[in-house]
Each structure stands twice: as structure tokens, then as C-alpha cells.
Amino acid sequence: MLEVARPRPERWDKPLDVAMTSRTVDRLLGVPPFAAMDPAVFPRATPLREILRNDTRVRQYQPGEIVVREGDYGSSALLVLDGQVRATLESLPPATLGRTPKRRGAQLARAIAQLLQRPSAPEVRAPKAAAFSPTHPGAGVFVQDLPAVLDANRTALLGPGELFGEQAAITRSPHTATVFAETACVLLEIRWQGLRDLMQSTPALRRHVDELYRKNHLDGHLRNTPLLAALDEAAFARVKESVTFASYGSFDWSETAKLDAASDPLERLRREPIVVEEGEPVDAVLLVRGGVGRLASELGEGRRTIAYLGKGRTLGVEELILAAERGEPAVWRRTLSAVGRLDAIAIPPAVFLAEVAPTVPESQRLRWRERSRYDDAVYQPSPGAAPARTLDFLVDRRLVNGTQSMVIDLDRCTRCDDCLRACAATHDGNPRFTREGLLHDQLQFAQACMHCVDPVCMIGCPTGAIHRDEETGVVRINDNTCVGCSTCANSCPYSAIKMVEIREPTGAIVIDQATGQPLLRATKCDLCADQPTGPACQHACPHDALVRIDLTTPTQLAAWSQH
């Protein structure tokens, strides 16, 4: 068998900016917040100077140029070094932000080229790859009619030393605001791996990032909560001032997920952190701002899942209002536990009853009174939702994290493998999924990337090779910066990432010069993002037995499995 030796890739082989110089690093070390950091507290493997050299780059913007756009996913924070930028506090029309539909012709051309240039061996990699140079979708796009935008919309001014974009980078979520340059400005982009390392060694920076959420993001989150939509500005301000934050579970929950998969249902329930417990006094109205919670009723030694709550859902409103009408203390009707991790905003009961409860319509109160006559009716699944045993299965296996899960109906599937062949044809001769997986009734949840709401595979990646596409949210792997460390594959709770041996165009296997072992790369489903027809697996199935489906709400699965 032919073999070719190459050096094993390392984390900083592909710096964010190959043009970053020692002189620029020296200047950065002299400006806040880096000037206040003690290089001695940083680990030997990730010294402060090397973080700045490899995980940052200096970017320049012209007045009106968009830096980040609301709704785009981000993997970097940005620090203002010089000049000023403005963050919009209200959503802007797509045309103002330079959003245009993708051209299908370009996708079709790429698909045809891919078929014509099919390699002779699987997993071929060129000997040399270009340096990693991600760009923000807004880069080079200017706000249309900037004076009118400034006149008609509320904005916040950010100047030198101020950080933004950090929440999207840290929480693997979309930007909540558009930021554009007001003047010619110079920004420092810090990819999230570098920000993570800076925060780990600098508690003051970690506290500052938490304070930024309250200052810059809390307002938008609360204003987008329907429960608070009817508040006047004074009441809104009092609610905002009163809230507290709480987190339950682990930010890196992949290890607990693997333990849960091997344990019995009662043990899984015992390991889930309790957020609120049935029968206990209601101590807050909770607004879920991230993660997933299991809402369940006590049943013998265990619990029966009633629903699962994700971002934007609330809990405690009904209990507080109905108890206040009856003149009784409010108690939780159900138990809420964190599935992996759950982040919540808490409104104190007194503030809620004084400021928010009076805005709840009488028609809504009437429905609650009627439903409260039946013990299980308050949190009954909506019509068309999945049955309780299916909810238990989805929550227990953490499948509710998937936005593009591959589900196969085995009663329809003929095992023709057209889905696998179609996937292999579009991905270097190797399919990016395995037609195996968890079974529930006639449904198989295949080992294919689910493009999760909370992709824990991204947490430990040392280079940022596994990342979200900033416009679509699809989780992708940049092959140029993947070092083959297997961290993402080991972190994925769903076994959806495979490590593969790579080859030269001649077919020779590439081996590590130092150890003689084959060099690996991480591979996974990319949802056929470059194909005009979408996922090839689903498109190729002749029996409609395979679907890519959003499991963050159970209604889609229930509807598809019954059609």
C-alpha cells in the first residue's frame, strides 16, 4: 500500500491572520483589556502572546459598513480598537442589510463541477491547503440609506475598548443585533477559541462578558418575549431591573449524555439537574433563554414527560396568576429539569404580579381557569404533538437538540442504500452518515449530523475548524484547519462525526512523519449545503422513507410519521 509522510497538523498551523506580526502583537499587549492581563497566569500551551498572534486579526471598516448582521451565526468576538460602531436595538429590513437570495445557478455549477472532478480514491486531500480566512457575511456590505436608519431606529454607540459579538461566539447562537461602522474604524476579531482561553485565565474578563449580557442583550431578549409585549416603558424598566440569571447543568454536557445513554431511565432522571420541583412554592417566573428543559409530572418513583421547553418558553405564569385569584400560595404544578444545560431569566413573583399580570388578557385567564379543573390539562401536549412515550424517548436520548435530524421509517425503507450512494457521490466517495442508530417503534434516528441547536462538538475544537455557517447555521468542518485530533468526534453525543484516513491524489495514504500512523480528518454531514436540491440522501430515497426534520418541536415528527 502506498504511503506518503506529512507532519501532523497542530492547533496554530493555520493562524486566523497569517500577516499578524510581532509588532502588532506588541501594540495589542499595550491596550485594554490585554494590558491588564498577567501573562504569567496563562498555561504554557496557550500563552497570551500566542493567543493574540494566532487567534486574532485586525480588521478595518468604512462608515456604514456592516460588521455583523442580526440573525447570522458568529464564531468571533470583536473589540473596538479605534473609531466607533453602532449596534441597532431594533430589527432592520433584509434589503437594508444587503441580504439577497442565493443564486441557484452558482449552486448548480458547483454541483456539476463536483461530479466531473470526482477523485479516483476516497478522501483525497491536496498536499497544500490555503490558510483559513473566514469572513463575516456582512463584510463589504453597507447599510442602505444610513441617515434614515439612524433617524428611524434606536442604536447604541460603541467606542474603543468595547467588546461585541461575544454572546453569539460563546453560546453558538445567532447575533441578536446588527453592528455597523459609524466612522472609519479598526476592530480586533478574536475567534472564540482564543476568547475562551482568555476568559479561562482572566476572571475579570469572564465577569465583564457576563455584565455585557445584562447591558447589551437582556433588553432585546425581554422585548422579544410575547409575555412582556404589552408593558409600557416604565413597567418594562422595572421588570428588567429585577431579573436574575440562572444556569443549570453543564456547558459541555456531551459526557453526561454518554453516561445517560448507558443507564436506566430512573437513573437518567436522577442525574438531570432540577430547576423547579412539583409541589414547591413558585419563586419566580422563568424565561428560557437557552438549552432544553424537561417538563414532567411525578409518577411513582419516576416522572412522566409532559413537554420539553426550549428558548423563548416561559414557566410559572399560570401558577402565579391562578393562585393570586384564589388567594392561595402558588406552587409548581410540574417538575422542570435541565436536559444537558438550561439557561433561564427569573422574574420575582412580586414584580411579575405587579407589572406583568395586569396585562394578561381576561380571555387567557378564562382558558386557564377552565383547564385547571383537570390535573393534567395545564401542560397537555398540543393537538398533533407526539405521544408521551415518544417525548420521553426524544428527551432521554437528547434528540430534541437536532434541527436537521435524519429519521428513517423502517416500514417504508427497502434497504436499497440509494441514500448512502447519493451521499457518497457528493462527498469524496465516502458517505457522511451511517444507516444505523437509535430505534423507536418503526423509526430509526440515523447517525448523521443533526445540526444541533447547541452543538457541543464545537466546544473543544482547538482551531475552530468545526463551526457554524454564519448565514445558514449549518455545522460544517473546515478541512484546511482540522488537525485530526478527534475532539469533536469524541464530544458528539450522537456518534455523527467520523475520523477518516486521508489520501494523496495518487491514492497513497498520508501518514504522520513522526509516528508513522495515518493522518486523520473529521468528516460529517454538511446537509449538502452546496447542492441546489438540498440533502442528497433525502432527495434520492425512492420511497419517501427518509426525512431531515426539526426535533426541537415534536409536532413535525408526529405529522411525518403518520402521513
TrEMBL record:
It comes from the Bacteria. PROSITE patterns: 4FE4S_FER_1, 4FE4S_FER_2, CNMP_BINDING_3. Residues 404-436, 439-471, 473-502 form the 4Fe-4S ferredoxin-type domain. Keywords: 4Fe-4S, Iron, Iron-sulfur, Metal-binding, Repeat. Residues 59-216, 227-326 form the Cyclic nucleotide-binding domain. The keyword Cell cycle does not apply. GO terms for molecular function: 4 iron, 4 sulfur cluster binding; metal ion binding. The keyword Repeat applies. This is Putative ferredoxin-like protein YdhX. It comes from Botrimarina colliarenosi. The lineage of its organism: Bacteria, Pseudomonadati, Planctomycetota, Planctomycetia, Pirellulales. The gene is ydhX.
